[in-house]
Amino acid sequence: MKFSEMLRAKADASWQASFDHPFVTGIADGSLPLDSFKYYMLNDSYYLSVFAKVQALGAAKAADLYTASRMAAHAQGTYEAELSLHENFSKRLGITPEDHAAFEPAPTAYAYTTHLLAVGYTGTLGEIIAALLPCYWLYAEIGHRLQGMKPEVEIYQEWINAYGGEWFDTLVKEQIDRLDALAELASPAERLRMEQHFLISSQYELSFWGMAYSLEKWQAPVMEVL
Ligand SMILES: Cc1ncc(CO)c(N)n1
């Protein structure tokens, strides 16, 4: 069994909980309140801005120029997705520059990105890809599962199309193959860290839906701190 398949099997319970989460099923059937989707978009913009940095940290840690260039290309791809999906959606959802200015990441978005940054700065490229992979792979699986659903809310349909398409599949497959190649070279201790990072990111993906669905907030405002 490939290393990636072993990780996917171990994460299955949290992935199934993501598939069944009311945020995800609410996108599929159009019942998700727009306020939750708006809150998701704001937090996801923040999330993706850190995600791109961690991809770039992966580029810095690559053993060869080709891999460095691919990780950098993925960081660039995140930037472009961020621009096209989020700027377009922000306008249509009525998210204003003031909303962005007043925005502070919710506790779960902050914790998840802090986890990614910790692995980005302390980990090997294998560890970094293990931490980033649930973000790619889970969304691709959700995109596929939701293909063919026709929510009345146009933005939800576009969200499904973005993650269910071939463009995203190719990126995900590339990183799965890279993870398997790096796992072959890794020591047992590094492979264990890769597994931990993957499972923790999978848990945070699940928490991220709950965060948006419940409009999760800090107990006290932290605007001055973050
Ligand atoms: C939280 C989260 N995970 C994964 C993706 C997919 O890139 C995303 N946009 N946001």
TrEMBL record:
Record has Hydrolase as a keyword: yes
Gene Ontology MF terms in the entry: thiaminase activity
Occurrences of domain Thiaminase-2/PQQC (ranges): 9-213
Catalytic activity: thiamine + H2O = 5-(2-hydroxyethyl)-4-methylthiazole + 4-amino-5-hydroxymethyl-2-methylpyrimidine + H(+); 4-amino-5-aminomethyl-2-methylpyrimidine + H2O = 4-amino-5-hydroxymethyl-2-methylpyrimidine + NH4(+)
Family annotation (InterPro entries): Haem_Oase-like_multi-hlx, Thiaminase-2/PQQC, Thiaminase_II, Thiamine_Salvage_TenA
Keyword Cell membrane: no
GO biological process, one term: thiamine diphosphate biosynthetic process
Keyword terms of this UniProt record: Hydrolase, Thiamine biosynthesis
Broad enzyme group: hydrolase
EC number, UniProt record: 3.5.99.2
Assembly notes: Homotetramer.
PANTHER family: BIFUNCTIONAL TH2 PROTEIN, SI:CH1073-67J19.1-RELATED
Function as written in the Swiss-Prot or TrEMBL entry: Catalyzes an amino-pyrimidine hydrolysis reaction at the C5' of the pyrimidine moiety of thiamine compounds, a reaction that is part of a thiamine salvage pathway.
Entry's family note: Belongs to the TenA family.
Listed name of the protein: Aminopyrimidine aminohydrolase
Organism placement in taxonomy: Bacteria, Bacillati, Bacillota, Bacilli, Bacillales
